Amino acid sequence: MKDPYYSRTEVSNSDLSTLKYLLNGGNKFDPFEAYKFGTLLDCMLTEPDKVNFYNYTCSGEQYTPEQFEQARQMKRAFFKDDLARRMLERADTQAIMFREMQIEFEGFEFTLPVRCKWDIYMKHLNWGGDIKSTTATSQKQFEEAARHFDYDRQRAFYMDIAGSNQDILIAISKVNFQVFKIPIKRGDALFQSGQDKYRELAFQYWNLIA
């Protein structure tokens, strides 16, 4: 059974990804299928009650034994990293936020109902982050992937929904099981590029769909 979060009507980062995909000539984008392995890893780390280690299923979706073993090794790597482990221990997991957000794009202001779901969110500090699986094998490769796959857009979007001043991307390599981290501060280059990306897509969403 798919997560009911995806059935909510507020605009999510995945909705913005779908719109970008359609505007670039695509005709189908299923965020659940696109991020299926990442969902398994997220559940192993943040929602283990959804994982059936005997039948190789997660939230009712079937995986292979090889995928489960790969996710297990990535989970072990995550917990060996002191910062990643401490953040997970202190955070709320899969925290959902939704609100009406005023957005500005090239001097034009508009309002959209928006939503997000955090992998890790520390309510007492009002910031958190996202856990990614990656094929990158070095910090430099992951930093390049973060921009290519619009992780900067996702994090700026989440930060603005929560009013956070900082954030972090934590990635585990599927290849060599190294852990890479990208801290983000409000106003830095990664935040700014992400904010520019989501504001433009949000305007297009408001103009075409909302």
What features would you describe in this structure?
This protein is an alpha+beta fold and 210 residues long. It has one domain (4-208): Alpha-Beta Complex (Lambda Exonuclease, Chain A). Helices cover 44% and strands 28% of the residues. It has helices spanning 13-23, 31-34, 36-46, 65-80, 82-90, 139-148, 151-162, 189-208; strands spanning 51-52, 57-58, 61-62, 92-105, 108-122, 127-134, 166-173, 179-185. Strands 4-5-6-7-8 form a 5-stranded mixed β-sheet, sandwiched between helices. The model has no long low-confidence stretch (mean pLDDT 93).
Count the helices. How many?
8
Arithmetic mean pLDDT: 93
The class by helix and strand makeup works out as alpha+beta
Percent helix range: 40-55%
The amount of beta strand, in percent, is 25-35%
SS elements, strand count? 8
N-to-C terminal Cα separation, in Å?
28 Å
Radius of gyration: 17 Å
Secondary-structure element order, as H and E?
Answer: HHHEEEHHEEEHHEEH
CATH architecture: Alpha-Beta Complex
Instruction: Could you tell me the CATH topology label.
Output: Lambda Exonuclease, Chain A
Quickly name the level 1 CATH class.
Alpha Beta
Number of domains: 1
The parts where pLDDT drops under 50 for at least 5 residues are: none
Q: So what's the overall shape?
A: globular
Q: Characterize the largest beta sheet: strand count, sense, and whether it forms a barrel.
A: 5 strands, mixed
Describe the strand arrangement of the main beta sheet, using strand numbers.
Answer: 4-5-6-7-8
